[in-house]
Each structure stands twice: as C-alpha cells, then as structure tokens.
Design a protein that fits this description.
This protein is mainly α and about 130 residues long. Helix content is about 75%, strand content about 0%.
Length: about 130
C-alpha cells in the first residue's frame, strides 16, 4: 500500500497583512477615541472647532457620544462591520459639514478609507466577501 501526501495550499492571510490591518485600525481607533472624548468632556479647542463649523455648542457632547459608540462597535470583532458602516456614516456627515463650511474634506475622506482598509486587512471573512462579490 502506498501513501500519497499532497500539499494543499490555502489562501491564509500572511501575518504581515493582518498586522498591517491591526495597526491601521488601531491608529484610527486612537484618533477617533481622542476626538470623541474631547467632545464628551467639552474640551475648549474641540468646542471652538465644532462651533466654528456650525454645530450648536449644546450638541457637541451628543456627537461625541455617538462617535464613541461607533468606535467601540468598530473595535469589537463581532461588531466591527457594523462599526465600520456607522463610522462611514459619521465621516460622511463630517464631509458634508466640511463642504458646507468651505473647508477641505480630504481628511475625513481618507480617514473613512483607512477605517475600511484596516478592517479588510485584519478580517479574512470580510476580505473574502468583498473579493468574491457574493
């Protein structure tokens, strides 16, 4: 009796790809948490910037809580996709405000792309879903 051993190659993501995704996501999360906390504690620079963009001062803290909730959902693996979708909506609103205020919108746009890049690189199921088109 003869035993034949075959090597099956799997499309497992390299550790470098997953690590890159985690680094990108971590940097995004750190910035988003910083922004949310500054809004929640009503830090003076955050308040001044938000009011200059047209937000009522009494609404800035609420925006901070929304951002905090979206960011927390993004950090939890089981809810990361929901968090990314909600952050996309949040950042879309930021883009709309920047356009209305006549400010550059590139930061929010690039940041939204980075949120999704981080998720796609760190989550194999999401990457396969996007690449397979199903």
């Amino acid at each position: 009796m003869e035993t034949v051993i075959t090597n099956q190659t799997t499309n497992a993501p390299s550790n470098k790809i997953v690590l890159t995704g985690r680094i990108i996501s971590t940097l995004c999360v750190l910035f988003l948490l910083f922004d949310a906390i500054m809004k929640i504690v009503k830090e003076i620079h955050s308040m001044q910037g938000s009011v200059a963009l047209g937000w009522p001062a009494d609404q800035v803290q609420s925006i901070g809580f929304v951002l905090l909730a979206c960011t927390i959902l993004y950090t939890i693996p089981r809810t990361a996709i929901l968090g990314a979708v909600l952050l996309t909506g949040y950042l879309g609103g930021a883009i709309a405000i920047m356009v209305r205020a006549g400010q550059p919108l590139y930061f929010a746009l690039i940041f939204g792309i980075l949120v999704w890049c981080g998720l796609l690189l760190r989550d194999e199921k999401m990457r396969l879903f996007i690449l397979s088109g199903k």
